[in-house]
From TrEMBL:
Lineage start: Eukaryota, Viridiplantae, Streptophyta, Embryophyta, Tracheophyta
Organism: Rubroshorea leprosula
Protein name: non-specific serine/threonine protein kinase
Signal peptide from the UniProt entry: 1-18
Catalyses which reaction(s): L-threonyl-[protein] + ATP = O-phospho-L-threonyl-[protein] + ADP + H(+); L-seryl-[protein] + ATP = O-phospho-L-seryl-[protein] + ADP + H(+)
Record-listed ATP binding positions: K374
Membrane topology: Single-pass type I membrane protein
Enzyme Commission designation: 2.7.11.1
PROSITE patterns: LECTIN_LEGUME_BETA (PS00307), PROTEIN_KINASE_ATP (PS00107), PROTEIN_KINASE_DOM (PS50011), PROTEIN_KINASE_ST (PS00108)
Length: 660
């Protein structure tokens, strides 16, 4: 009886507030939102709109349901209030120039498919900008000064009605406490900030307030303008955010959002908001550039952690931490955290066992970020300092086609490497060994270009030359959209450091090892090119470079003999069917042979490879390169590479000698 009554009461309550939309998200799930173009919700609940990885793109995310914003009887817009936390993280390469910005938007449609990128912020396009039939109201967080829209500066907040020429705008900042002193803020600072937007239909006024995340809502709004939304917005609207990149790029994020019609939107719980990616590593670089006081503090920290270390070493979760490691603070994970994250390295979470060791899936307890933890055993402590300096260095690599190394942890005899987790696993699973899902040619070609772009970055575009040393399909992981991400870069060095440092140990995988590398043990960018060649053939033919069964068939020899017979396309993966671009397949196969040349000097550079793949320059006629079957495979050509090749073998020498 009581139960029934309670149900009835609940229903009544729900009914009476059903029209007054009211929601609060301290972090999102992808089902809460309609995501468009680049927009994604990461596993820790962070909404990412635009991305530094993509130029000239738009992104938008809308609340999943429509919202009734006007009284249908008298056509008056309701009062509402909303608050959200955002962050604009500029491209690290162009710190001072940081994309175009983002906007909170009220739109008649769930999506703005005709809107343009760059200065149009994904809200409008050249022809509909300023058109009253748009029925769009937006609050822009604009990080670029466009003369055409009479922007006041390149760091302002504005209210836009149907167009990008703001009705009212103000330089970003906030009024402190009751004194009302104004403080500037930099929108693209990479730090989270909070915005409040309030509309009062009696007063016909809209207020917009901005503040850093750790500051309570300022008493005085940044913008307060008279406006009647009733003639502008539609009765049923969609609420969301849009953002765009141009040649200038920034990543834009929403961390949390609440909204309420006819009432005060619920305060966000700052402690529950998802963390921004890489916030730890940004702190590191700060640490290293700030002067004496911090050095003193880190000395104290070093002493304290030294003491803590002594106390802790007997415990179960003992990490091995040497004092020189303290400077790597945030990139060093605690063993205990990784133990918790992987629920004690259970077999259930085992993702795979590779040449280097076991890999487990985990979720970091505080940020809820999904990770992959690789456990590698190592021998003596010799060379460990260099190796860790190198890991930390590799952790600073950022490229859309590289798997991010988030950090490491060290125990006695064990090294744990923490990577971002990629749900689709490694490429080899889609190529051979009875794949459940195979990739079509378009997807494979995109994967190839992605890997090439990642390798080019390692070889030529980063501050130091990084040699991968183990390029192969099983080291290529696929993200949610089947983009290739090259993993495990530079780690073959572990063998050099972990075992006896006086013998040069050739690390890598058979079938991908350049002949000069097996002889001299010296890895170069050209040895990576050799492995990349094997990888190209592997992807086009859907087979391993050396098939262990079938009497050790060497793939490159087979491609070579098909090419000699003038039937190179016949060697391609039969699983490709008939839907493929013959000229692309041929290009990839020939390029694979060219990269497999036993003379390292005859192999192209990664930049040339990129040009060939993009079709910028035609592939040289390989018949002119005196290719012979023996030239392609393991027969060494005397006196060639050692004399010709400069000593490219890298890596972090400058880090080790000069400090940072
Ligand atoms: C807003 O919604 C939440 C949960 O849906 C509810 O608990 C709360 O009472 C609502 N607030 C108002 C003022 O209606
Ligand atoms: C809508 O307007 C009518 C007439 O002005 C009024 O009676 C009614 O209460 C309003 N409805 C809401 C939900 O405010
Ligand atoms: C019209 O509707 C709005 C919103 O519901 C309400 O605030 C207002 O009082 C209504 N006006 C009249 C004249 O009833
Ligand atoms: C928005 O309202 C206008 C004017 O009432 C109407 O012409 C238009 O079709 C509406 N848009 C949508 C998407 O409903
Ligand atoms: C601009 O957007 C409108 C819809 O608002 C669309 O009809 C039009 O084709 C777009 N124009 C361009 C040049 O994209
Ligand atoms: C705040 O920004 C404005 C506009 O860019 C500038 O004129 C002013 O000097 C800045 N104030 C401070 C204290 O930096
Ligand atoms: C907007 O700000 C003004 C000035 O601080 C204040 O008087 C007014 O009540 C505010 N209105 C809303 C809807 O918050």
């Amino acid at each position: 009886m009581f139960f029934k009554l309670a149900v009835v009461l609940t229903l009544l309550v729900i009914n009476s507030v059903a029209d007054d939309v009211n929601f609060t998200y301290n972090g999102f799930q992808s089902t809460d939102l309609s995501l468009q173009n680049l927009a994604v919700v990461s596993s820790n609940g962070l909404l990412k709109l635009a991305s530094t990885d993509y130029s000239f793109f738009t992104a938008a995310a809308f609340y999943k349901d429509s919202v009734k914003l006007k009284n249908s009887t008298n056509g008056t817009a309701f009062s509402f209030s909303t608050t959200f936390v955002f962050a604009i993280v500029p491209d690290l390469l162009f710190r001072d120039l940081s994309g175009h910005g983002m906007a909170f938007v009220i739109s008649p449609t769930q999506g703005l498919p005709y809107a343009s990128a760059t200065q149009y912020l994904g809200l409008f396009n050249y022809s509909n900008n300023g058109d009253p039939s748009n029925h769009i109201v937006a609050v822009e967080l604009d990080t670029f000064q466009n003369e055409e829209f009479e922007d006041i500066d390149d760091n302002h907040v504005g209210v836009d009605v149907n167009g990008l020429k703001s009705v009212e705008s103000h330089g970003a900042g906030y009024y402190v406490g009751s004194t009302g002193q104004f403080r500037n803020l930099t929108l693209p600072s990479g730090r989270p900030m909070q915005v409040w937007v309030e509309y009062d239909n009696q007063e016909q006024r809209m207020n917009v307030t901005l503040a850093p995340i750790n500051v309570r809502k300022p008493k005085f709004p940044l913008l307060s303008l008279p406006i009647d939304l009733s003639p502008i917005v539609n009765e049923t609207v969609y609420l969301g955010f849009s953002s765009a990149t141009g040649r200038l790029r920034a990543s834009t994020y929403i961390l949390g959002w609440s909204f309420m019609i006819n009432g005060q939107a619920k305060e966000l719980d700052i402690s529950k908001l998802p963390k921004l990616p890489g916030s730890a590593s940004r702190q590191t670089s700060k640490l290293l550039t700030i002067g004496l006081p911090l050095i003193f503090m880190s000395l104290v920290y070093a002493t304290v952690s030294g003491v803590v270390y002594l106390i802790k070493r007997k415990r179960k979760f003992a990490d091995v931490v040497e004092d020189w490691e303290c400077e790597y603070g945030p990139q060093r994970f605690k063993y205990k955290d990784l133990y918790m994250a992987t629920q004690g390295f259970r077999d259930k979470g085992l993702l795979g066992t590779g040449g280097f060791g076991k890999v487990y899936k985990g979720t970091l307890p505080t940020s809820r970020q999904e990770i992959a933890v690789k456990i590698v055993s190592h021998g003596s402590g010799q060379g460990m300092k260099e190796f860790i300096a190198e890991i930390v260095c590799l952790g600073r690599l950022r490229h859309r086609n590289l798997v991010r190394l988030l950090g490491y942890c060290r125990r006695k005899g064990e090294m744990l490497l923490v990577y971002e987790y990629l749900p689709n696993g490694s490429l080899d699973k889609y190529l051979y060994g009875q794949p459940k899902v195979t990739l079509n040619w378009g997807q494979r070609f995109r994967v190839i270009k992605g890997v090439a772009s990642g390798l080019l970055y390692l070889h030529e575009e980063w501050e130091q030359i990084v040699i991968h040393r183990d390029v192969k399909a099983s080291n290529v992981l696929l993200d949610g959209e089947l983009n290739a991400r090259l993993g495990d870069f530079g780690l073959a060095r572990l063998y050099d450091h972990g075992t006896d440092p006086h013998t040069t140990h050739v690390a890598g995988t058979r079938g991908y090892l350049a002949p000069e590398y097996t002889r001299t043990g010296k890895a170069t960018t050209r040895t990576d090119l050799f492995a990349f060649g094997a990888f190209l053939l592997e992807v086009a033919c859907g087979r391993r470079p050396i098939e262990p069964q079938a009497g050790k068939v060497v793939l490159v020899d087979e491609v070579f003999s098909f090419w000699q017979k003038g039937k190179i396309l016949d060697v391609k993966d039969p699983k490709l069917g008939t839907d493929f671009a013959a000229e692309e397949v041929e290009l990839v196969l020939k390029l694979g042979m060219l990269c497999s040349h036993s003379n390292p000097v005859a192999r192209p550079s990664m930049r040339q490879v990129m040009h060939y793949l993009e079709g910028d320059i035609p592939l040289p006629d390989i018949s002119l390169l005196s290719l012979t079957a023996s030239g392609l495979t393991f027969a060494p050509r005397e006196g060639s590479e050692d004399a010709v090749l400069p000593h490219l073998s890298l890596i972090v020498e400058s880090v080790l000698s000069g400090g940072r």
